């Protein structure tokens, strides 16, 4: 009997404990759900469309002339990839008279899989658009004769924080009673101060109404309106709707975290006239089989920069040891490839700048890294290329401009041309462009941000600049020159490693590597075709 009572008591105690634990862990506040698909708030687009001002019917009868030279520049829906035909068919013709060639990219896939590929690409693209667009990207028109005064752009709030909305006012329109409504979807309104003669309803809610008989009092009150973001959904925007009788205005408040910088401590003596290259720059390269060339590169670097760090990514089948002071040698699985190696090398860099070189380059007295550092220190450029001198004496900068024409569901058109956009003031040897040669100095964090797509194992270089378009501000200077170890070699003069290297590095146009490249341009970057010269 006693033991039964004891058991009951224990059971009772246990259940009380369980209930207490449950109560303790029970959510004490209800969490509103948030749509993290970054779709603009429901109906916002419709709201905006409805608000687009009605075209003035009397304007339809006024004649106009189209200015072809300008109208032709407006992005049309539908892009065109056309190559140039004809021309001379001589050896080196492409070098001397570069012609534009056009490449449809869907040929990377079999006709049988193309339909499926297109559908999948369209689905991924839709997802991308939803992630990358916010209501701040939508068009808002401030109508003429709207008595409402409000901020049209530049309002920003950190997630779950509060701001004062500046610039609000109601213009003089004779009324007995003035009403002003505020509506938002991701946050609430309130007043930071109360003004006599103004009635505030719905403060602390997503819909707030101000009523007053006295316009000056209402305008005074409008100086104290606050917005608080209440749904945690950073990198989006809230659309605020402002309404008075017969008039309506919309504006957006961006909701985002501040951008956290990645700064590099470059040492104490930055105010000195000379740059300390060892503290600022890491040299990164990728090697494959060519240890003799790599050693020549290292020796030439050491002649001018004895303490600069050199990072080497190596995917040779039988890796050899490369050692020495200020050298980091990373061994990768055999044949991982060109871009994977670049990625690995660049990921290990801890200095502010990274210099990319190929393993068969040779530093000379003209390889003045100080000049490239100076350009990046004094401009907003993120990456600056130099020049590469071939054994023949020919010097190349390989400057490319990239432009993308919007297309419809077939994808966009990618156009690449030799050349550049502008020269750079104060740096007469330098220009602004979009793509450069395999010899460049860049801000390390920007290169890491763009990254090198490891799926590009063999033929790749400009793909990095295509991925970087819009993220990288690129320049090119022709007065910083690195030498290229001789490349033009007769087949019978090649060493065994040269031959194996050539087989891996220069595959034929019909090869898998070219298919992979075109396939990525088609699917990943959503292009339909590619023209270049
Ligand atoms: C303001 O909001 C209130 C309550 O939702 C509504 O009754 C009123 O019609 C609105 N006024 C204007 C001018 O939109
Ligand atoms: C340059 O930077 C390196 C690496 O940070 C440092 O060891 C060296 O003392 C610096 N040289 C000068 C002259 O400041």
Structure overview:
The chain has 533 residues and is α+β, with helices and mostly antiparallel strands. The strands form five sheets. Strands 13, 14, 15, 16, 17, 18, 19, 22, 23, 24 and 25 form an eleven-stranded mixed β-sheet that branches. It has a six-stranded mixed β-sheet with strand order 3-12-11-6-9-8. Strands 1-26-21-20 form a four-stranded mixed β-sheet. The model has no long low-confidence stretch (mean pLDDT 83). It has helices spanning 2-25, 44-51, 68-71, 93-96, 111-132, 215-221, 277-280, 291-304, 338-347, 369-378, 444-450, 462-468, 496-505, 512-523, and strands at residues 101-104, 148-149, 156-157, 162-164, 169-170, 178-183, 187-191, 198-201, 207-212, 225-229, 236-244, 247-255, 281-287, 309-314, 327-331, 353-356, 361-362, 383-389, 395-396, 400-405, 412-418, 422-424, 427-433, 440-443, 474-484, 527-532. The protein folds into two domains: 64-71 and 135-256, Immunoglobulin-like, CATH 2.60.40; 277-532, Alpha-Beta Complex (Spore Coat Polysaccharide Biosynthesis Protein SpsA, Chain A), CATH 3.90.550. It contains 14 helices and 26 strands. The chain is globular and about 90 Å long. The longest helix has 24 residues, at 2-25. Helix content is 27%, strand content 25%. One 2-acetamido-2-deoxy-beta-D-glucopyranose (NAG) binds at residues 179, 181, 207, 209, 243-245. Residues 283-446 form the Glycosyltransferase 2-like domain. It is a single-pass type II membrane protein. Belongs to the glycosyltransferase 2 family. One of its GO terms (biological process) is ganglioside biosynthetic process. It is found in: Golgi apparatus membrane.
